[in-house]
Amino acid sequence: MGTDEQKLLGKLLDDASFINWAKNKNKNDLEYWNNWIGDHPQNIEVIENAKAIVSGIRFTEQLPNEKKISREWAKVLAHIEDKREFEPQKSGKNGKNKIPLAAAAIVLILISWSGFRLFENFSTTVHKTGYGEIIDLKLPDGTSVVLNGNSEIRYEKNRSRDIHLKGEAYFKVKPVPSTNAKFWVHTDDLKVEVLGTRFHVNTRKEKTKVVLDEGSIHLEFINGEVKKMVPGEIVSFSKYNDKAVHKKVAVSTPYAFWKDGTYTFNEIPLGEVMQNLEYTYGIEVKYESDKLEGYIITGGVPNQNLDICITAIERATNTRIIHKNNTLLIQENLNN
């Protein structure tokens, strides 16, 4: 690492805002540093090292050669056997056999090496949103991900194009023409495989729903079936019923409008609208009567503030919504 990189590393480690970003805290800090990284891709290695230090992970450890360790360990074992065969056993104060210092040193090296390798190979980056929170992420490869509330993506170190998703996210995958590197999104139901495109994935309601905006993608379901999607299509699949639904949708269908801070509905039943709030805000919805679930909503509802969202839904459906503890009770508005 050069002098300039070392200076940048020091500044990052002293910056409280950067530390919040590295620990996935504070929405404003996340937004600022995601944008900064996008504008300074030449510093991605320093950023990753600084993040690793904040997280307690070391990436630049000098490790002994694996074969050399094996050879030295074999020598130590042979030395121990020779001692046992030709010399009387020596005991310590507690009557236990002493292990030669060389053997202890090799054991320590082996434990340190194997432990580091295990940690290094399986270290995972996780981005998780709270209830009602939306964050815009920039992955190391340049891919943009908008993560909806109560959602999570994770990937192994150095494998940021192999994502595991729980919840809901919108992906704008950056293509890599030089290598045609693929990008994968895994859910409990299926795997999405793309080169570079825009698409929406929702894993709510015990199924996975994929909507394609541009490009083309391949889906591989957990049952082994494969489907190809083109823009303007939606596919949903659940491992529980082992059946895929594949259909065309209108270009203007607002499946991912939530990423801009608004739920947009076009003649959608209130029951379906409230399911979005249940998953996004982690709340429970109850109805004074079953007919209320069938009330139709058309229009936009702000989705980043629950109280404003409730008020907008009340006006759109002429209902009264009582918010108590973690429950919403929907009633008919008898005042109108």
Describe the secondary-structure layout:
Elements: H1 3-13, H2 16-22, H3 27-39, H4 44-55, H5 66-86, H6 101-122, E1 124-128, E2 135-138, E3 144-147, E4 152-156, E5 162-166, E6 168-172, E7 183-186, E8 190-194, E9 198-202, E10 208-214, E11 217-221, E12 226-229, E13 233-238, E14 243-248, E15 262-269, H7 270-281, E16 284-287, E17 296-302, H8 306-317, E18 319-324, E19 327-332
Keywords:
seven-stranded mixed beta sheet; Jelly Rolls; Phage tail protein beta-alpha-beta fold; 8 helices; 19 strands; alpha+beta; single chain; seven-stranded antiparallel beta sheet; 336 residues; globular
Provide an overview of this structure.
- The N and C termini lie far apart (70 Å).
- The protein has 336 residues and is an alpha+beta fold.
- It has helices spanning 3-13, 16-22, 27-39, 44-55, 66-86, 101-122, 270-281, 306-317; strands spanning 124-128, 135-138, 144-147, 152-156, 162-166, 168-172, 183-186, 190-194, 198-202, 208-214, 217-221, 226-229, 233-238, 243-248, 262-269, 284-287, 296-302, 319-324, 327-332.
- The chain has 3 domains: 66-121; 126-251, Jelly Rolls, CATH 2.60.120.1440; 261-332, 3-Layer(bab) Sandwich (Phage tail protein beta-alpha-beta fold), CATH 3.55.50.30.
- Strand 18 (319-324) and strand 19 form a beta hairpin.
- Helix 2 packs across helix 3 (27-39) and helix 5 runs antiparallel to helix 6 (101-122).
